[in-house]
Amino acid sequence: MKAIVCGAGIAGTALAWHLERDGWGVELVERAPVFREGGYMIDFYGPGLEAAERMGLRPGLEEVRHPVNEIGYVDGSGRETSRLVVKAGFAEVVSLLRGDLARVLAEQVRAPVRYGTTVAAVRQDDSGVEVELTDGTRREADLLVGADGVHSRVRELVFGPEERFIRYLGHHVAAYVVEDEDLSRLVGPRYRMLTVPHLMAGAYAVGEDRLALLFLRHEPDPAVPADPAASLCEHFGHLGWIMPEVLGRCPQPPELYYDQVTQVEAPQWSSGRVVLLGDACQAVSLFAGHGASLAVAAAWVLAGELRAASSGDLSPALDRYAARMRPVVTDVQAFGRRFLPWMAPPSRLRITARDWMLRLASLPGADRLFMNSFTPGGHRLIT
Fold this sequence. Notes:
Keywords: Monooxygenase, Oxidoreductase. By secondary structure, this protein is of the alpha/beta class.
């Protein structure tokens, strides 16, 4: 059996890991010209971490982990307004850069990656699928996997235009990493955030000399600005704290990640011998904070269903995969929409309420209740 996986990010490489070990021939194609480093800090936990542990990847994750010992908010002068000390009991939340998680997975996959390439056309029948790539080559396979993100080309070709599936959540997001020992020491192993109505800027030290930055901005217009770096400077440059220093070193894409905050709601996840995976069909948004975990878990579920399938007809396996994953994705997406006004508060009253909640969560015994309330979980996907 042969699979073509479009997208060499977290979901695509996680699935390739499984398929290779099940005897499939796998080829990965990736529209980015090179492997994508960096990205924003993520909290990796729940079913995805459980799957990674069973895959033997936990030691690699620990090597690139950047433990968080405190979550807190500051004002424009850098003065702390509220904080929550993260207890050792939360060790099952692995904080790391998105790109580092992708690399841990990619290093365990033997399949070649054809960078700077995506799918141009798809034709399929009962016996297989033929894929034409943007470099002019053609490939034949038993399965085409669209693991190519929110703006999936595979989804567009097989299921229709992007606007049918995207739910815009009214915000833009940006992230990048700067190298600066002084700023890294100033922020330290703490996630620090500065918020004013409709704007949030966060920072977290990555090692001793790097600082990971994240920006959220309320924006009714989903269109990404022509100059995203200039847009960040315009909207966040007046906030104080470390903003003047870090925005003065803001790169342009691809080093700067800039996009809409969206969710993907796809009625169909498969058609014949084409299946969607990861953000292409289940993007839960930055606000839900569970996307990487669900991507790795979904790859586990899909691989398991394919393993149990007959070689002739894959459709029942693809249907079972969607049936297992869809309720979990729907639940986490709803959580993300509920959490949005807390992560990017729309008013000073909401900011004050959030600060008081964080202070109350510091009381003995309240920290775990707080963390459980603000993290989706309890999904039994890895069996």
